[in-house]
Amino acid sequence: EVYAKIIEDLDYAITNLPATAPNGRLTKNAATSLKARLQLYREQWNDAETLATTVITQFASLPNNGLMPGA
Hints:
The chain is mainly alpha-helical. Helix content is 63%, strand content 0%.
């Protein structure tokens, strides 16, 4: 199944990507966000909510929410 392979790849990315990276590089949160969106498309509501909440929590913990370095 195509979705099974996509989920396998995203799980690998979530496990192996860094939490932060230079501009233009994928991060753990980017892969987690993609997986959350995929689960929304598949109507896997609980998993989508859990993944999205993880990303939101991680984003909220960044200094200045990662938007304004040095502000």
